[in-house]
Amino acid sequence: MLNDLREQVKERRFRPEPVREVMIPKANGKLRRLGIATTADRVVQASLKLVLEPIFEAEFLPCSYGFRPRRRAQDAIAEIHYLASGSRAYHWVFEGDITACFDEIDHTALMDRVRRRLSDKRVLALVRAFLKAGILSEDGSYRDNLTGTPQGGILSPLLSNIALSVLDEHFHDKWQALGSVGQRYKRRKAGGAVMKIVRYADDFVVMVHGSRADAEALWDEVAAVLAPMGLRLSPEKSRVCHIDEGFDFLGFRIQRQVKRGTNKRYVYTWPSKKALSSIIEKVRQITRSHRHRMLADLLRHLNPVLRGWCNYFKHGVSKRTFAYVGYFAWWRVVTWLRKRHKGLSWGAFIRRVVPGWQIRDGEQEMFQPQAVEVIRYRYRGAKIDTPWTARLPKEITATA
What we know:
Helix content: 40-55%
Shape: globular
Distance between the termini: 49 Å
Number of helices: 15
Structural class: alpha+beta
Radius of gyration: 25 Å
Largest sheet: 4 strands, mixed
């Protein structure tokens, strides 16, 4: 198959198949549209991504963190924490969310941005072919996709970053126009607004040092920047707030509060209520299932879920939340075990089934969220390199 694909691509005979549409439920009760490509198309997309990613990474700005190598959601949270803390005082927040971003990207505008960096017509033709491949609906009918890039494709995250980089460039140009550090300081002292964007895929916040009016003015400004790409702000999910009110971003709750025992105010980050509800529901579903015949089977399904959730949030103020999740999960598993050991008194159950209050089955032991160490995540700024960052030999660096 690989040899055949290689020949098709070389001879320009390759034509992608329509993606299979699958609708999956979202947390808010709505449906998300995914496009599942064939195996052959995914191989070609992965190869194309290996070619395109280094080219576009060279011009992507540091304020973007989603679907980029060596960057993660915690970097975005760390930058927000950095900007809102101390004398930097970016206290007003414009929370932005784009309506159906992957489904509404304008193909012509996207290809124009791709052509800015690429001139190879064969590569451009492949990108265009994947955008125009069409959609095979769940009922078996075919339809053309006039806009958007299928969510679920290997190439789609990179293409969405290329489209959304218009936002990054707009706010970067505004920042550069303010001049030097001294000039920006004078502007802030005079009451002028200074702002920076932090973006993770199609979720972004604009941190504003200024007034609420400066943040409110971003509604029209951001909408005007997105319009040429065929994108729209979501009125329901976008809003303006103060850091003291707090807001949710990438699963974290970010809010400035008075530190206990002092009069000083600090910016804190911890798991949001929505994220906590999500893990509680997952634990409830796993322990409710009847397919686990042995405790070891249950723990093999439950432990990765708990471990992954805790590893994501271990860089926030999460100790009390971890303790609650561990307490809830322990009682759910104990309840599951009690149903399988009916007739045992509580004391006998503890001695025989959970000795020392520890849940284990042979070598399989229940993961304990409360034991996870909370570690502060340091803001890395623009120091995050890419896998393709040039590394000069020491003698050349010394000579330079």
